[in-house]
Specification:
This protein has 562 residues and is mainly alpha-helical. It has 20 helices and two strands. The chain has a two-stranded antiparallel sheet with strand order 1-2. Strand 1 and strand 2 form a beta hairpin. The chain is elongated. The N terminus is likely disordered.
Length: 562
């Protein structure tokens, strides 16, 4: 037998893998060899990009040194320094347009263009602020033209790096020409922030959001912290926040919405600090205006992304809290916080929004905590004030609104919501009734206040027991809560009211509570009996059995015989 393999049976793959078939051995599938990992410096021209970025910053540092340091040393005339820097920048920009048309000239063209546009921008800053040759408005107009041209060129070349390098370079070197963080510096940075909005949501460039937002946010925050009452700083903080909100809403449906939302939140920090620097009434107006503008913008720009909505809600909450803390930190603080929570809760009932609902609960929680903390100290001394009454009344309204929203808007468990509402109403009603009687009647109203609280608790217990009879009657939570509330009312009646109240008020408390107990017990028993009777099967009367009618038997007569 010839065992020599023919030419078709030779290994046709380097690994020599074969498998047997009916027609003979066949080569197995040749898997591709694993790709070798390239070093980072060989990936997509990384070395060229690093050198180009470094060249941009080094060249611009040289331009700034020509404009400032040479002036301090007395070298060359100012006209020569500024003109030379502008001429160099224009030549770099012109060279970039020619280099971009050549093969492999994309990276170099972007570096030259970013250097040229940033150099022109810095020369305008120096002529406007350092040498004061140009009026401020004219300098801002020229800088806006340069920024718009740089952004337009970046969009035409589809190069995010050009816009980022130009913006970051100017933001890092402009403070040298403005001699620190000043109002002119913030004005130029606001121009860059506004110019970067267009490619952010048209090209979905996430890096430009950080490059244009972070410098102006930090500069404005520093200026507000250093000069809290300055009008220019105040206006700049609101302008920065407004631009950030506009760009965030425009880019809220893009792929990089989270980056834009975070930048919007950071750009709003100066505005929050600026609100705290205002006086009480002005701070209240400013906080309300920020909340109205933000929520109005969210409604008009619907649908809005999740991250943008969350950021806008946090900014609104921070602005309202800052305004409330600025207006007062005394007894009425809880009332202000609860009032803000009431307005937000009412808006949630009209337009369902989870973030607004959470913000409303946060304000209600803060206001309730402050109110209950002060009330726990006030109830001992019976030194109730009008602030306690207003806070208790608003807390009661907030609880009722929360119960309605939970049932109608969020389809929450009715039994659980009712139990929570009843327990919360026990606290709010206590504060409201005690403060109302003391404020209106003075010290003589303390007894009437405790009488009212005990009666209110019994009414809550009766309402819970009445609600437990609805539906299928298996509302165990309502029954247990109603019994607990009734037991609390009786405990207060015997342990406190019996010793603290006097005369007719004490007798009235026992009589009213007793009557409520009698009516609640009788009503509950009657309703329970009706329910039990309704569940009992009704026996239908059996019809009387009729005797079967006996048919008369036919008589057979014998036939006659023949």
């Amino acid at each position: 037998m010839n065992t020599t393999q023919g030419p078709q049976s030779q290994n046709q793959y380097p690994n020599g893998a074969q498998f047997q078939t009916a027609a003979g051995p066949r080569p197995a599938y040749q898997y591709a060899p694993p790709a070798t990992k390239q070093p980072w410096w060989e990936r997509d021209g990384m070395v060229a990009k690093v050198f180009a970025a470094a060249g941009v910053f080094v060249t611009l540092i040289g331009v700034v040194m020509l404009l400032v340091i040479a002036a301090r040393a007395g070298l060359l005339r100012p006209e020569i320094r500024v003109g030379g820097g502008a001429l160099l920048s224009a030549m770099l920009l012109a060279a970039s347009t020619r280099l971009h048309l050549r093969l492999g000239g994309q990276i170099g063209a972007v570096a030259l263009a970013s250097t040229g546009t940033a150099g022109l921008f810095l020369c305008i800053v120096a002529a406007t602020n350092y040498y004061e040759w140009i009026p401020g408005v004219a300098g801002l107009v020229l800088a806006a033209v340069v920024a718009a041209g740089a952004i337009a060129l970046a969009m035409r070349w589809n190069s995010q790096a050009l816009a980022v390098l130009m913006t970051a370079s100017v933001a890092g070197l402009a403070p040298v020409l403005t001699e620190g963080v000043t109002v002119p510096l913030i004005a130029f940075l606001v121009l860059l922030q506004a110019a970067g909005c267009i490619p952010e949501f048209t090209k979905s460039w996430p890096a430009i959001a950080a490059a244009r937002s972070l410098p102006v946010a930090f500069a404005t925050t520093y200026a507000i912290a250093a000069e809290r009452t300055g009008t220019s700083e105040q206006i700049a903080s609101y302008l920065v926040a407004t631009i950030a909100l506009t760009s965030a809403l425009a880019a809220s449906r893009s792929r990089h919405e989270e980056v834009t939302a975070v930048m919007y939140g950071l750009a709003s920090v100066p505005m929050i600090i600026a609100i705290t620097a205002l006086t009480g009434p002005v701070a209240a107006v400013a906080g309300a205006a920020v909340a109205a503008m933000t929520f109005g913008s969210l409604v008009l720009a619907r649908p809005v992304g999740l991250a943008t909505t969350a950021a806008a809600t946090l900014v609104t909450g921070a602005a309202l809290l800052a305004a409330a803390m600025t207006v007062t930190t005394g007894d009425f603080l809880s009332a202000i916080l609860l009032g803000i929570g009431t307005v937000l809760a009412a808006s949630v009932y009209q337009v369902k929004n989870h973030f607004t609902a959470g913000l409303s609960l946060a304000f209600i929680g803060l206001g309730a905590f402050d109110l209950v903390t002060r009330a726990s100290l006030t109830v001992v001394a019976d030194a109730w004030t009008m602030a306690d009454f207003v806070g208790g009344l608003l807390l009661t309204a907030d609880i009722l609104i929360a119960v309605v929203i939970g049932i109608r808007r969020y389809n929450a468990d009715r039994e659980g919501v009712a139990v929570f509402g009843a327990l919360a109403l026990m606290v709010s009603s206590t504060i409201t009734l005690l403060s109302l009687c003391v404020v209106t009647l003075g010290d003589s109203g303390q007894g009437l206040g405790h009488f009212s609280v005990t009666v209110c608790w019994m009414l809550l217990a009766s309402a819970l027991l009445a609600l437990s009879l609805r539906g299928d009657g298996k509302n165990t939570g309502l029954v247990v809560t109603g019994l607990v509330v009734a037991a609390s009312a009786l405990a207060k009646l015997f342990l406190h009211d019996l010793a603290a109240l006097s005369g007719i008020v004490r007798a009235g408390a026992f009589i009213v509570v007793g009557l409520l107990l009698l009516s609640a017990g009788a009503g509950y028993a009657q309703a329970f009996a009706k329910r039990a009777a309704a569940r009992r099967p009704v026996q239908q009367p059996q019809p009387a059995q009729q005797q079967p009618v006996q048919q008369p038997q036919a008589r057979h007569y014998p036939l006659p015989r023949r």
